[in-house]
Amino acid sequence: MLRIFNTMTSAKEEFKPITPGKVGMYVCGVTVYDNCHIGHARANVAFDVVYRYLRHSGYDVTYVRNYTDIDDKIINRANRDGVEFNVISERYIKAFDEDMARLNLALPTHQPKATEYVDEIIALVARLIAAGAAYPADGDVYFSVEKYEEYLKLSKRNLEDMQAGARVDVDERKQHPMDFALWKGAKPGEPFWTSPWGNGRPGWHIECSAMSMKLLGETFDIHGGGKDLVFPHHENEIAQSEAASGKPFVHYWMHNGFVNINSEKMSKSLGNFFTIRDILDTYDSEVLRFFLLSAHYRSPIDFSDQNLSDAEAGLERIYSSLAAMDELLASAGTASNSADELVEKVESLHGRFCEAMDDDFNTALAIAHLFDLVRALNKAIAEKSASAELLGRLKAEIARLAEVLGVFNSVPAEFLARIKSRKSSELSISTDEIEALVEQRSAARKARDFKLSDAIRDQLLAKGIELLDTATGTEWKIK
After folding, report:
1. Core-most of 27, 95, 329, 350, by most CB within 10 Å?
2. Distance in angstroms (rounded) separating the CA atoms of residues 6 and 223
3. Cα–Cα distances in Å, from 344 out to 265, 338, 340, 351?
4. Is residue 282 part of a domain?
5. CA 433 from chain center: how many Å?
6. Is 330 exposed, middle or buried (CB count within 10 Å of its CB: 0-12, 13-18, 19+)?
7. What are the E-state strand segments in 336-413?
């Protein structure tokens, strides 16, 4: 039984879709005026796994993730660069798509652009005016928060307190300081569309309501986004959507936690702002995805070089075990019967994985179960107590998990080679020098010159290289 933490009720609830077997899910996408940062990566990976697991559970999922391609930030960037707004939006839509592909995100069912839904936005604004929930004001149109009695029910804020804390220099055209723009009258030089209230463009919040209602209906199952969107964006979406339709807008509200940088909130002003591309210049994209899944999606996650290195080491451990398993299968050096412990771990893996994921998509616990399996696998390999049949089942089970988590999709030997190459680039000794010293040490061992052999081992260890003497020869890895 899948249970989802619903921000609206602040509790985990059994998931019951509106239509049995089908799920409608909308996740707020990016405003496309710059390259995406680690916070965008976190949100998109989190909801990608939700999408994948719902499909894994047998649901027919319609997943909508939008692009906000008209906004003040886009216009400001276009003016700065001396180009049309759509040049900026298309440039960063392309960059976003490239980043998400590198992070192995599954394509949503629909990826609407706000500018493609202006007719629907205008119709929704007109509907709100007709319902008495919105009013024109000199070319702009505002939503009247006092006309929607349940305003702030998602964020649990108090309208009177917020009004008391509002700035003194509020727009005098507003009936209430917290009223928000549904339509913005065009300023000189800005892009615009024609409307019954004059030339202008949509407000931010109305875009998501119009797109989601058009593609998923006036009521749908799941709406997601970052925790920072609870107020004002999602609060305003609820108000305008329910004021227009008279129906509940969304049944389950999901929000992922913040990303901190070295225990501080990420901020351009603090100089601790990292784009996805900054990170992938150094680390493998699968490492970044694995790091993001190592914490529960609702928890804050601390991004640091150390934590990313720890994630890399964990992923490397798993891949090393899978590589050893592949070598064992290739050599046909397997037992006729398997160790009871590994049999139990393989047989229970999928059930334990689903139990973790059914508990509000707990990827951290799901990955812990995988490490538990790998420990049993390593023991069976060392004891030569794993049959080919069992190892084949194990590979199939991990492939099932990989489809949900979006990791473990590389050929193990190739992944380990990529990690080794990355780490080698940071060493003070070249790969050729390492290989030469390993060969020299092998010759010393053969000649029973153990003093020289130990000296070479210590020399390499001092440079961060650890040697592993195996039945097939000496291997090295970066410590």
Report:
1. 27
2. 10
3. 43, 10, 6, 11
4. no
5. 40
6. exposed
7. none
E strand segments, 266-357: 301-303
Residue type, 7: T
**Residue 7 falls within a domain, yes or no?**
yes
Q: What angle do CA 317, 318, 323 make, to 5 degrees?
A: 95
The tens digit of pLDDT for each residue in 446-457 reads: 899 888 888 889
Residue-range definition of the domain harbouring residue 398: 306-412
Looking at the structure, do residues 333 and 458 belong to the same domain, yes or no? no
SS3 letters for 368-420? HHHHHHHHHHHHHHHHCCCEHHHHHHHHHHHHHHHHHHCCCCCCHHHHHHHHH
Amino acid in position 132: G
Q: Same structural domain for residues 454 and 370?
A: no
- Based on the fold, state whether residues 180 and 224 are members of the same structural domain: yes
Rounded Cα distance between 323 and 397, Å, is 16
Q: pTM to 2 decimals?
A: 0.91
Q: Mean pLDDT, to the nearest integer, of 93-101?
A: 98
Q: What is the CATH number of the domain that holds 118?
A: 3.40.50.620
Confirm if 180 and 243 have CB atoms less than 8 A apart. no
Q: Which residue type occupies 170?
A: V
- The verdict on 88 and 159 lying in the same domain is yes
Distance CA 350, CA 327 (A): 24
Residues 6+ apart with CB under 8 A from 463: 427, 428, 429
Angle at 280 between CA 278 and CA 283, to 5 degrees: 120
End-to-end C-alpha distance for the chain, whole angstroms = 43
Which pLDDT does position 168 carry in this prediction? 46
Residues 6 or more apart whose CB falls under 8 angstroms from that of 15 comprise 1, 2, 3, 4, 252
Length of the chain: 479
Q: Cα separation of 54 and 48, whole Å? A: 10
Q: What is the pLDDT of residues 138-197, one digit of tens each?
A: 999 999 999 999 999 999 999 988 877 665 456 888 999 999 999 999 999 999 999 999
Quick one: 186 exposed, middle or buried, by C-beta within 10 A (0-12, 13-18, 19+)?
A: middle
Residue 278's φ and ψ, nearest 5 degrees, are -55, -45
3 state DSSP class of 336: coil
What is the spatial order of strands in the sheet that 220-226 belongs to? 60-65, 22-27, 220-226, 250-256
Q: Which single residue is written with the structure tokens 């702002």?
A: 273
